[in-house]
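User: Please write out a complete single-protein record containing the residue sequence and its fold in token form, without commentary.

AI:
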Amino acid sequence: MGVRKARHGWIFTLIFGVLSLAWIFPIVLVVINSFKKKVYISRRPFELPLGKMFVELENYVRGTEKIQFFEAFKNSLFITVCSVAVIILCTSMCAWYISRVKSAFSTGFYYLCLFSMIVPFQMVMFTLSKLANILHLYSPIGIILVYLGFGAGLSVFMFCGFVRSIPLEIEEAAMIDGCTPLQTYFQVVFPILKPTCITVAILQAMWIWNDYLLPYLVLDIKRWKTIPIAIQYLKGGYGSVDMGAMMAMLVLAIIPIIIFYIACQKYIIEGVVAGAVKG
């Protein structure tokens, strides 16, 4: 029986290893082509950038100058970091309230958050863009509130599952020691939520950093461009595209989020399991 399980384990390892290579290959292809001349990207996309195909950092320099990459990077970083921080703070407090206060309001609000997860974005994008314009949410500060609304459903769901697994006696002991509800939350509950906080941060950061449609609809893109929006400006008239610069900018765009994911990925399984199963 043990030999059969070991054999099946090797088979699954091989299958998932091949699948992982299939997922990684497009990223490798983008990196390879970011060092090629434009003409060779379409003619020889799968070859290494050797000899006359290799242009060193020319594509990177040209791309950053064309689209003002570092300005877009600053906007994307500000929006992503602030949105993730606001989502974690607000949704974790909301989940704590929902899990500890048993009332028709808290139950209804919880199901409302769950319902928001299944509503397609296409159904609300017109009214959202109109409302954002009316409320003057077309700045980096304003779009943070929009991201809070769209990110609340999944985050509240995950936090509620984890909060329900925290023994109530810990909070009662803090109250007896003289802690106010806010002190109990920040000094007792929030530190315990660390695994789920990191998981939510990774999921939301990957979404917000790579998001194109929502900033395009909400932001005043003449003043504030995020990286996905800025990269599209490498497309010229009549369908012409500076493929070398675009590949280089895509590499620069994915590096920060990959580093963040690798640094925090060990918490993902722990946080997902805790948020979706416990309680």
Observations:
- The domain at 60-276 is CATH 1.10.3720.10 (MetI-like fold).
- DSSP finds 14 helices and no strands in the chain.
